Amino acid sequence: VQFVESGGGLVQPGGSLSLSCATSTTLFDSLPFGWYRQAPGRQRELVARVSSNGTTNYDDSVKGRFTISRNNAKNTVTLQMNNLNTEDTAVYYCNIAIRGTTTTFSWGQGARVIVSS
In which order are the strands placed within the sheet that holds 90-96? Predict the structure, then answer.
């Protein structure tokens, strides 16, 4: 399974970005997906999750600012990020996000997001 993330870039504090993830899995409809991020010097963390039926969950650090969605027809997962701040600076990755396990597929190259004035 491959993941290809796109949409990263440089944005000022308070700005918005939309990340997109395309995946090759034929099991897309039945899998939960998540957006993870890894900031410099920190471990990768899960920030948003969407289940196979569309239920979403967010880490407290992004709740109310980020929105995750999925398009089963296009095998894509999107992360809309609003009101960005400098602490959101990280490389963002998508992958499966199954509750109760840290198991994932291989990681893609990620999308780098830099929030800076």
Answer: 9-11, 111-115, 90-96, 33-38, 45-50, 56-58
